[in-house]
Specification:
21% helix, 133 residues, single chain
Amino acid sequence: MYAIVRCGGRQEKVALDDVVTVDKLAGAAGDSITLTALLVVDGDRVISDPAEVGRYQVTADIVGDSAGPKINMIHYRNKTGYRRRLGHRQRYTQVRITGIGTEAKQQSAKQQSPKPQSKATAQSTAKTKAEEV
């Protein structure tokens, strides 16, 4: 399963657990974001109808920031003594795709994952196991 998503004026082909470099996004490393899906391919089924694609969500976690290559520019005008040296380095954000699917599918997947126990529950479980021995 993969999807075509729109992010920062560009379109990217993403699949589960892909790390994609996109234009700079607001947020810190570890934050979760939702990307707009334009097309979803699930096996032999291609979903491109806007009404149906709107139900699908592509979620991603921000991995960190990165920068593109340094671009050097020189402006020069002949016979006038005009010279300017400029540089630019584009900023990017790397994101890891964590889920592609409808809201119902993603919520059921979250419910099936084991939840961490609180300290009180873990201590009471440990006490009952100790009493049994």
